[in-house]
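USER:
Make up one protein:

ASSISTANT:
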Amino acid sequence: ERSLLDDLRVQLARLEAPEADLALLKRSLDQIEELFLLVVVGEFNAGKTAFLNALLGSRLLQEGVTPTTANIHLLRFGEQLTHATNNDYLLITVPVEWLREVNLVDTPGANAVIQRHQEITEHFVPRSDLVLFVTSADRPFSESERLFLERIRQWGKKIVIVVNKIDLVDDPADRQQIVDFVRDNGRALLGMEPQIFPVSARLALQAKQEATNGLPTGPLWEASNFEPLERYMVEQLDARERLRLKLENPVGIAANLIEKYSRVIAERQELLRGDFHTLDTIDEQVTAYEADMRRDFKYQISHVDNVLYEMAERGDKFFDEAMRLGRVFDLMNGDKLRGEFERQVVGDTSRQIERHVNELIDWLVDKDYRQWQAVMEYLNRRAAQHADRIVGAMTSSFEFNRQNLLASVGRDAQEVVDSYDREAESLKLAQEVQTAIIQTAAVEVGALGLGAILVAVLNTTLLDITGILGAGVVAALGLYVLPARRGKIKRELRQRVNHLREQLTHAMTRQFESELNDSVQRLREAIAPYTRFVRVEREKLDRMSADLQDARSRVNQIRGEIERIL
């Protein structure tokens, strides 16, 4: 038991159990060495003090109609009557023989007006080895008594119910009805058949005080019905039974705390399951965002492809028109031909491409902004779901850290959204895309802009046109050379346009992938602390749950040993 309780204290400390529960385990360890502890509880004015006086055979404790027991009364054996105050305890020694092996406690009323009474009562009950629960025959099992008994039951204590003031009920049938009522309610509350003793403490004390030889007899003693209770105290609570209850007490406390903190762990695990669902949902959103962006990018960049295809179509028409025998003299005017080519074929292609690129950039920036906004809103909803919830009804670093991380990630996302300057982002991205296009598509010609790229790439083709003529070969050119050269130039134009398209596509795709990866990485980095916390806590809780399960098995093993030996 000592090993179990020591290990359990360590486990509960890791769960940040309040000091009261850790101290309870410490006191349970200490109590293994102490005498059997019999605690009397009940509402004030139920007759607890009168009952104790009857047990002791003398009016040693103050009785009254108001909550008179302001302190715990701890009664021990002593050769003479003494009183000593110790914080919340009033230590009384009395020369009663059966107290040599039993410590007896009288507690303040459970529903006393002074709240301190109930606090110290509920603080002391877990230390008991046996609880005598005193209720009054004139109002048995009030609602507050039911609640109090449920709290006592949680500690796994053996409880004996005493129905006091039975002398107030004259009719035996009514008395039996009261006992049956108490038994039925006790069975429902305790989950087992309770030991019940209907008594009159007042008549019992009076009979003991009038006894001449120390042994009460006569009508008063018989009417008090006190003898069965005292016989139980002497015969049933013998040394073996007291030892059994003494050994079961710390095991019961351990079992109660194991169940309590198993629920705490289960609640935290349930929260973490929700957190994992949140992270999975965000991960699915981000994955879907990437897939949607790549799919939509193909559509966006197709506009650039169409511009270049249209330019190639215009080039075909231009060469079909220009490279005719009737325009052979125009073919020898290179400057004029280049001018017409730039106007009719190239035209505003560069501006169209730049416009589509800018539209693509605006689309990318807007999607990035909306994805951050979606993550922020989702996290904020998750944080708001449990904003006021303290896991396990106690403040812990687990809940504090979890809420802070949720709030922190939400704040970071909110700051990104609030500070998102679409114009600045678009300008920055446009510069990066332009640089990428120039570096990729124009590295060989050293162009400085898209319009210059288009002219430079096609310049060789134009030279091919203007350099094909020689003196005295006009007729031969028209008949044999011109159609073949026209087909070749058109093919070269298509090849150059296709090459340019591929270069532009490659440059923009590479830049798009870079921006998309950066955006996704920023999102994942923003929620990374929250993700790490959830994963680490899940592993820790799994270990703690296994430790408590092992402790539960040890409790059952010890209980089996106690039952076998005693």
Notes: The radius of gyration is 46 Å. DSSP finds 17 helices and eight strands in the chain.
